């Protein structure tokens, strides 16, 4: 499913026009991005949470040459799935 398919599904599920669903999706993505970029976490109960995680500097290896390189510290976004989302995705046991 791509963004266009998601907008179509949102429009049908919430009885919205596709344009309104697109604006709503863009606004939600923008709000989540801004919150995580400022260090806040965003929790959607049952779905999951978004947060920024810090990675320490470390030593790595260039796979092509085998040379040792320094990998600088960085901050990356992380998504953790909620229990309801995990249960919906997990295969059903017989």
UniProtKB/TrEMBL annotation:
Q: Which GO terms describe its molecular function?
A: DNA binding; structural constituent of chromatin
Name the domain of life this protein comes from. Answer: Bacteria
| Keywords of the record | DNA condensation, DNA-binding
Which segments cross the bilayer? none
Which SUPFAM superfamilies does the record cross-reference, listed alphabetically?
IHF-like DNA-binding proteins
Keyword DNA-binding assigned = yes
GO annotations of cellular component type? cytosol
- Note the coiled coil stretches, chain numbering: none
GO biological-process terms attached to the record: chromosome condensation
- Pfam family membership, one: Bac_DNA_binding
The record's annotation in InterPro entries points to: Hist_DNA-bd (IPR000119), Histone-like_DNA-bd_CS (IPR020816), IHF-like_DNA-bd_dom_sf (IPR010992)
Q: Which SMART domains match?
A: BHL
Q: Which family does it belong to?
A: Belongs to the bacterial histone-like protein family.
Mind telling me what this protein is named? Bacterial nucleoid DNA-binding protein
Species per Swiss-Prot/TrEMBL record: Azospira oryzae (strain ATCC BAA-33 / DSM 13638 / PS) (Dechlorosoma suillum)
Q: What is the lineage of its organism?
A: Bacteria, Pseudomonadati, Pseudomonadota, Betaproteobacteria, Rhodocyclales
């Amino acid at each position: 499913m791509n963004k266009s398919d998601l907008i179509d599904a949102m429009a049908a599920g919430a009885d919205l026009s596709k344009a309104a669903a697109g604006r709503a999706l863009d606004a939600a993505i923008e709000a989540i991005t801004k919150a995580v970029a400022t260090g806040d976490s965003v929790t959607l109960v049952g779905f999951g949470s978004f947060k920024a995680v810090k990675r320490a500097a470390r030593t790595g290896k260039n796979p092509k040459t085998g040379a040792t390189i320094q990998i600088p510290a960085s901050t990356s976004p992380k998504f953790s799935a909620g229990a309801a989302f995990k249960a919906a995705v997990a295969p059903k046991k017989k």
